[in-house]
Amino acid sequence: MTRYGQQFGPDFTFLGVDPVDLEDTEALAAADVVIVGAPWDGGTSHRPGTRFGPQAIRGTDYLGHDGSRPHLALRVDAMQDLRVVDAGDVEMPPGEQERSRQALEDAVYAVASQGTVPLVLGGDHSITLPDATAVARHLGFGRVSMIHFDAHADTGHIEFGSLYGHGQPMRRLIESGALRGDRFLQVGLRGYWPGPETLDWMASQSMRSFEMTEIVARGLGACLDEAFEIALDDCDAVFLSVDIDVCDPGHAPGTGTPEPGGLSSRELLDAVRRICLELPVAGIDVVEVSPPYDHADITAALANRVCLEALSGIAARKVGLDHDPAGPLLEGR
Amino acid sequence: MTRYGQQFGPDFTFLGVDPVDLEDTEALAAADVVIVGAPWDGGTSHRPGTRFGPQAIRGTDYLGHDGSRPHLALRVDAMQDLRVVDAGDVEMPPGEQERSRQALEDAVYAVASQGTVPLVLGGDHSITLPDATAVARHLGFGRVSMIHFDAHADTGHIEFGSLYGHGQPMRRLIESGALRGDRFLQVGLRGYWPGPETLDWMASQSMRSFEMTEIVARGLGACLDEAFEIALDDCDAVFLSVDIDVCDPGHAPGTGTPEPGGLSSRELLDAVRRICLELPVAGIDVVEVSPPYDHADITAALANRVCLEALSGIAARKVGLDHDPAGPLLEGR
Amino acid sequence: MTRYGQQFGPDFTFLGVDPVDLEDTEALAAADVVIVGAPWDGGTSHRPGTRFGPQAIRGTDYLGHDGSRPHLALRVDAMQDLRVVDAGDVEMPPGEQERSRQALEDAVYAVASQGTVPLVLGGDHSITLPDATAVARHLGFGRVSMIHFDAHADTGHIEFGSLYGHGQPMRRLIESGALRGDRFLQVGLRGYWPGPETLDWMASQSMRSFEMTEIVARGLGACLDEAFEIALDDCDAVFLSVDIDVCDPGHAPGTGTPEPGGLSSRELLDAVRRICLELPVAGIDVVEVSPPYDHADITAALANRVCLEALSGIAARKVGLDHDPAGPLLEGR
Amino acid sequence: MTRYGQQFGPDFTFLGVDPVDLEDTEALAAADVVIVGAPWDGGTSHRPGTRFGPQAIRGTDYLGHDGSRPHLALRVDAMQDLRVVDAGDVEMPPGEQERSRQALEDAVYAVASQGTVPLVLGGDHSITLPDATAVARHLGFGRVSMIHFDAHADTGHIEFGSLYGHGQPMRRLIESGALRGDRFLQVGLRGYWPGPETLDWMASQSMRSFEMTEIVARGLGACLDEAFEIALDDCDAVFLSVDIDVCDPGHAPGTGTPEPGGLSSRELLDAVRRICLELPVAGIDVVEVSPPYDHADITAALANRVCLEALSGIAARKVGLDHDPAGPLLEGR
Amino acid sequence: MTRYGQQFGPDFTFLGVDPVDLEDTEALAAADVVIVGAPWDGGTSHRPGTRFGPQAIRGTDYLGHDGSRPHLALRVDAMQDLRVVDAGDVEMPPGEQERSRQALEDAVYAVASQGTVPLVLGGDHSITLPDATAVARHLGFGRVSMIHFDAHADTGHIEFGSLYGHGQPMRRLIESGALRGDRFLQVGLRGYWPGPETLDWMASQSMRSFEMTEIVARGLGACLDEAFEIALDDCDAVFLSVDIDVCDPGHAPGTGTPEPGGLSSRELLDAVRRICLELPVAGIDVVEVSPPYDHADITAALANRVCLEALSGIAARKVGLDHDPAGPLLEGR
Amino acid sequence: MTRYGQQFGPDFTFLGVDPVDLEDTEALAAADVVIVGAPWDGGTSHRPGTRFGPQAIRGTDYLGHDGSRPHLALRVDAMQDLRVVDAGDVEMPPGEQERSRQALEDAVYAVASQGTVPLVLGGDHSITLPDATAVARHLGFGRVSMIHFDAHADTGHIEFGSLYGHGQPMRRLIESGALRGDRFLQVGLRGYWPGPETLDWMASQSMRSFEMTEIVARGLGACLDEAFEIALDDCDAVFLSVDIDVCDPGHAPGTGTPEPGGLSSRELLDAVRRICLELPVAGIDVVEVSPPYDHADITAALANRVCLEALSGIAARKVGLDHDPAGPLLEGR
């Protein structure tokens, strides 16, 4: 598994970080976070285009692509304070879901098995099955809790006659035992899917799903407090899966199955930062960015910032930062 | 008035519900809600395109067009728990406002007179004159209150030398006696129109208009509480008219006269659901969706969801649901 | 400096107000506010296009271009209650930053020196250096405080080997003494720029920068309260500089360096109105609107409304209005 | 009928020419060509938006809006060699076709009756009924031949129950006697409309319609030769009506009813120039430019150039130019 | 294989023709042409989106969706003179290429085996493998020649480790013996793919490929003459495969792998009509229309017209029309 | 002048060729062609955005970015048969035209002085002044002829008070003596600029400008024949400057000053290939690609292909290819 570059378009790394080869276990072990691209849109049930997600997330930033990003509020530079490298894309031939899924799982496991955090850039949400499985293979089945931002539960059984579309990975993960249903936290659900049978199955697995009505009524902070408590109960680490469609289509139009009424981008960025600052995150994926439906790159920019907030939170956690969100930016005032 | 299909583009129904013929009074009477398309943009004072609104609202949904939409939070399936059918579009020849207005009023009356709720898909806001008149003809002039979401008061007198543009329907409805000014609730007004004379006329009619500054200062919930009390005072039913431009242009760019500083799509969806759950709604229209100015269908998707939230609220009201917005989605957690 | 019209495209004025000639000092003195276009995008570090900002801000409004805009909530008509005129654009040849900067400073000084408020339509943010310098030349170096809405601090030292890009005007203004660092209020900062050295410089100047995390934690209202107190402490007037990218890209996609996680357009409009109503504003600029990246003109419309809210606030302040944001729009209810 | 400005958006004239008032008969008589805007899309059977056509055609040009356009090949400056003025738009309230049609006919007649050439900027093609009628009223019914560029014959009888949509003006013109069927030359027809009955009616009127298959087989030049001969046979003048959809959608996407397989923009420009250079043109309209469907203003730019080629041809005819298309641009080589 | 409707979006048929069920062999046999949708983009090597091709090609037409399209030049109405019905889409789950390919082959064979012409709407070009195989299964391996419009030869061997992408179907068809290499006519090739090895293989199969340089030098008509002769030499029928990217990106931007320098849309339409008029066409597919990359639906409209020209040619051939392209549209002139 | 990477966005090379450092004279001398990016839009008189041209031209290709491009018609692989390397961008700070111009001239001279062909990716057309000057400095002032594809003559004197915008480079080149006016060949001019004075100056310099009317009347081939003869008369080499706006806006919408009625993309590609195959080309630039105004990357793709046709022509000339455009692609047929 030598470095593949990007499957589509020119080859470059996430904001200019160093490339890494997935066969170079030493380099993987020396890193804090390894970027992995999963350019797969063969699992989407509607608008495709997420195959161009890794490219867009890596490259959409008006700042210099120089491997440095000092975080204003946290005062850490995730890309300097951490060792972040980019393994390029996994080859995922459109139309070949089984082969592609296995290749991705192998790549993510190559990273996770070195004790390094994989940050996987999707691709559609079906990639979370291999992503989280690979992390659980290393840390132990049932030892990793999941925090899952999404408009959709993604717990479907069979769609278009297949077990492996982007609406089903969460069910597969629980069925296989990789993740526990009662440590599965979902944030931002809304709309008209899934139906009663699936919801019953979710309840039977003791999943905890925060639908938007509850989030509006109780506040996102209170919901996250509750989620954090569950996530840390008899689990060793957290997998964070961010479907960009958790945000309102006004903030993230470039996605495949946009559901109106979601979080603002500010809410998502604050939540992701807090999770990575307060919890032991062992794996991350950012999915469902579909550039053909984006406008002026605003969805790609948001996903890029989700990655940077996550990295900055991890860096701040590493250095033991005690951050007061209400404090002033500059000292002395 | 046999079923016409869609005036523009291919013929299909709202998310795949059964078609109905407006001459089939038995079928109309058997339904809970009848969809009616009003593909009219001859009343707009600026950007046209709402003629394609009915088509866009009917068809914009990434889920299967199968006549089923289980509501996550309410746990009703409006399209199964209610009998929802689609009468297609009314023929409204561009450039022929008088003939078009009459045809629409007849169609809506055909539905309302059977005791069935018409859900009219605009079209520009001038269609609310025939829509609400038809409902009032059935329930009695002055017996129907109005809840009107909009950036604009739509109470102009004469525009471009005409009485019947999209900025004037509310005045015509009050002048004719169809609706009472003192049971006219407006939510979301803002900007720089209309001027003092019109505002004086509105005050003289005892209209209650919640401008965005008041909504921000007091909270949307408190404003709706006040509005609900007025709406139910000596009236038998409510007409709900939703101009999509009540939302901020960031959430609803695809419209003719976008006014910055509006509601979020989440706020609108929550409000519409609450109205239909708590009040006896007898007619609805959803207007001013202009697909040529939309991006990635986000405005059309929002309008589709406004319809579904309304239908779900009606369904929940029908089954006597007691909904706690702060409760968890899944039982047992 | 006779009136130049618009540098790009057809010639028209802001919403149809009267044109004015910059050499006609009598007319400048008789005005309350003079619009000046600064069609300059030679300072941007990324996406260009703000050269078309003045044209877009002047002309984007679905209402008649008739020089009247009655404000719904404040019940003033800024364009009638004030004398607002438009001096057209300053000629700013792309590629000639020094000549362009000087020409703009001269034009703004021509207005400010008559005791009239210049409202400058950018252009990229590098124009604030000449804009605010010109106002300070008239009112006294160090006598004007700054309220600066932006995602970015714009306090960089050297970029691309130049002192004068759009990321540096605030540093130049403080260095020259035109503005005091300890009366420099920044609202809406976020993201990953600038780095520690620049932040240290900012702190050393006693700047007060409200980053978004603080704004979310404390509320925008509380932050503005604090800012207002500083702004009025031993200063005679306020310069208001609004970079449209202070808003979230979902609300303002048409800009050069969009940073996710910003204010909503509602928050910005409310803040601008409040500033102009409560503080003695002596100069304004609205910058970084880039029409090529806009969609359905929503960013241009927002910037147009920022201008109108500012003008309406100034008008309300002039007539001594006592405004209660929580009050009803119409009397008698 | 004092000058109205533009019905939509800011007020400016065609490339900066002087404005004229339609009541100022002396000024109309002194002009060679008067621009008239017809912002009407109430006649379109599909995509609207041509109401913004006049604004787009007037203003879309990257050159200075200075009332000068020296033609490279012809070496005339139409806007200097001719007296061209702009009467602004006729008020044409959307939804009011009868009133609008009459107002436009009156305006065009005001120009034509002074012996001046009206150049009408549409608007949809239904405006050609009043445009050509007005010219014929002045020069005599049956004395004006028509050269009509279009993908569609526009000879429909009744559409959507109306006689006056954009698919019918040519029939109405022949029925009324304003124009003779046997002096009606159509260029560029193609596609699947109208059906046999209408084609039979057209044949019965002895119309001469050049379908694209014939144009490809014989060459556009040969077809124009034939058309010119008919046009000048017992007629005193020519009306030129250019529907931008005569061009291929690749060259003119911004239109309401795009039909693939049309002329290139080069072919249209060359033909229009030749017509105005070789024939006594007494009236012109340029229609069906729909900015909401345009991209990067290419359709608006094309329509602007159609106007300039027509004006340049008229100017060259006026000065008696003898132009050799195969000659070099610069003398001496 | 009961009728499936459309896999994505609402259900409607090609321009409103009657639906048909693939299990209803009697109905298939009674038809002249059966439309089949192949909403598959799992084979594309670059920009996806062709899954929405069938929906776009069926529905993009500004004329009434009424099952009638009288051809102006040919004076036939393909949809009346032929029996055209629509079988809906084949279910082709994204990510499952093998299952999808088989399902499509079965569906096309169901049509072809009744002696009826399948007109398959893609989808990416990988669908031509099942399409043409199914037709050859009925008429005999080696008995059907191929006329293939494309910028690309599509004769690759292995791509992304797979035999079945959109760049390889033509090789698979020849390898399997379904089609003969020496009866394989390619029109419109250009660019920088494939390389020498593949070209050598193509030459070894005696394929006849008309690259654009040759087409420009000799004329498209002459090339088609030569192609027709080969096509009819010891073959019984022709399969026509039209990749929309044979046209220049200016005429067909909405596609996955646009190669500049192609045919104009006029050239393609004329060629398709001529083929279906002069040759015994037994199967057709129209592929690579990708709506997310289209603008103002011009690519979808072109593909719709390719279908209509093909159908009109078949109808004209059926009625024995003798068509003179240089003749006038209307009799008597 | 160490390699700078790309000034905007991520760093990658033209289709994946090797990078080169401009200080590495040995490497420059060893190359046949060196790519240089000139991301400058400070010279444009209207729509900016060409600063993103180099990035777009380097990266827009659906094929693998693998440094190989076998030319179908010529059967050479320019990127293998030639040594092509990429020096990255020259830093050209927006707003600093003098410094930027000098930096670019130095960079191009660094290449040309090694006897290597510079291929400069613009940027607006003002870059041709330093580009061609640098080549002439090496080969001798007056020893290099120019073939210049453009809608505009670019021979203006002073624009916006400056000598150095994108409408003036050709005048500066002749004035300085770098190029001879009587060896200056312009192809594709059209429209309404420049005026008589400038045309007189051009004639006085004995320039040979082929306006589109002449090209249509005589054929592009005949015009090129004439141009080639002049180009080779007492000159040692040719500079080829391609402004993408020489093509019709339908084929190249993504540009700053689109002039309708231009060449098709096929015509441009054929002409560029022929020039590089038949003439001793010593320098090339491809300019005026403005990605913000592009759609579906069709303009960027065209410019990428202009580069590849030029490179392929140079490669074919190097190997002494004798190419017959009318011959078949594959041998044996």
TrEMBL record, chains A, B, C, D, E, F:
Cofactors (names): Mn(2+)
Pfam families (alphabetical): Arginase
PROSITE patterns: ARGINASE_1, ARGINASE_2
Keywords linked to the UniProt accession: Hydrolase, Manganese, Metal-binding
The keyword Hydrolase appears for this protein: yes
UniProt superkingdom: Bacteria
Annotated GO biological process: putrescine biosynthetic process from arginine, via agmatine
EC annotation from Swiss-Prot or TrEMBL: 3.5.3.11
InterPro entries linked: Agmatinase-rel, Ureohydrolase, Ureohydrolase_dom_sf, Ureohydrolase_Mn_BS
Cofactor: record remark: Binds 2 manganese ions per subunit.
Protein name (Swiss-Prot/TrEMBL): Agmatinase
